[in-house]
Design goal:
The structure is a homodimer of 218-residue chains. Chain A is of the alpha+beta class and 218 residues long. Chain A has a single domain, classed as Pnp Oxidase, Chain A. Helix content of chain A is 22%, strand content 37%. Chain A has six helices and twelve strands. In chain A, strands 1, 2, 3, 6, 7, 10 and 11 form a seven-stranded antiparallel sheet that branches. The two termini of chain A are 36 Å apart.
Chain lengths: 218, 218
């Protein structure tokens, strides 16, 4: 990945990463991003779901959505994904920190107009979140496709920033009788709650069973 | 809270909330925000820690940070906080959704110059994340205060957006033999990991013990 003025990690450069493997691994560990764009001169930051397929991020929404209307103007956007992995508790307030993995992608969102590509992109978003769910549900209707805008954003100008490990205190502070350490944070999926309107006898589908199995964090 | 063109929830208006109680409760449930600002005409979205005290959001960082340098120019910013509470699995791909609580705050970041106010703001950020930790650690030094910029952002132009509950499918799809439901998501704090460099005999401090007790999610 080329490093640009926008993606170069300037504060604590050792936390910066520019290889696609690292960038993809963070993007694949989350499905909510924050998209920033400029509207009437003001910055706007909106959370939305995303998927990744190859070197593209994919986002979708109602074609009537204000954000997607703005993205369609070929504006510059900034798409940021952040995973918080821990609270870092040091011996001084100053050295308290957080462990995190984040990715920032700059680019322009490209509206997907081709019907087959659009459906494939929607499937990719679905697969990114719960693999196999797409095949289990009722097929998409033409009017639903029309009511949905899907955009792809190339991962061409991006960087990751990562902090791991314990506190880094001032040398003399290690002599203090202050407990220091890390409180790990995990995103946990809990036991799925069936819709009370599920038809009698309908069991949890395979994709959801697999998802629960894979994501058991405790 | 006055509703402005920037804060009005236009897509699915029933999900919009403008009362301070709702806005505060979401802000108090998280400590990572995404700040958007315009830099050389491009939007930039950066994750950072925050605290809330009364009607202000407080953020801090190294005085050499690019983001804080930009914020100090009295630019418009957009600060967004998002909690993802669940995956909503419907009978069609189209009606899949997520349960979430988000807050968007528009405003300008105000640099806190007064030393006492600055220290109080840093304590407020610390208290927002782990109450009581501030009193346990080594006091802040003057050079640390100088190396840190702290900004307050009034919560004067803000809105919340919330989705809860199960899937909302098309009437005829309830007849399908497709499992639908919600996969709840929780942020979980795990057992704290002591710094191997803690002095022998130093026990976990009270603030961390209380934090673990309060945040036991499973």
């Amino acid at each position: 990945m080329n490093i640009t003025d926008r993606t170069k990690v300037k504060r604590i450069p050792k936390r910066g990463h520019y290889d696609l493997e690292t960038i993809y691994s963070i993007l694949d560990d989350e499905f909510v991003c924050h998209i920033g764009f400029v509207h009437h001169g003001s910055p706007v930051v909106i959370p939305t779901l995303y998927g990744r397929k190859d070197n593209y991020l994919l986002i979708h929404g109602a074609s009537t959505s204000r954000m997607l209307g703005e993205l369609n103007k070929e504006l510059d956007i900034c798409l940021t994904v952040t995973l918080t992995d821990g609270l870092v508790l040091a011996r001084s307030g100053f050295h308290h920190s957080a462990n995190y993995r984040s990715v920032v992608v700059f680019g322009k969102a490209q509206l997907i107009e081709d019907k087959a590509e659009k459906e494939a992109a929607l499937k990719a978003v679905s697969d990114h979140i719960i693999a196999g769910r797409w095949e289990e549900v009722r097929p998409t209707k033409d009017n639903e496709l029309k009511a949905t805008h899907v955009f792809k954003i190339p991962i061409d100008e991006a960087s990751a920033k990562i902090r791991t490990g314990g506190p880094a205190d001032d040398k003399e502070d290690y002599e203090l009788d202050i407990w220091a350490g890390v409180v790990p944070i995990k995103k946990v999926y809990q036991t799925p709650i069936p819709d009370p309107l599920n038809k009698e006898g309908v069991e949890m589908s395979e994709s959801v069973k697999r998802f629960v199995e894979v994501n058991k964090n405790f």
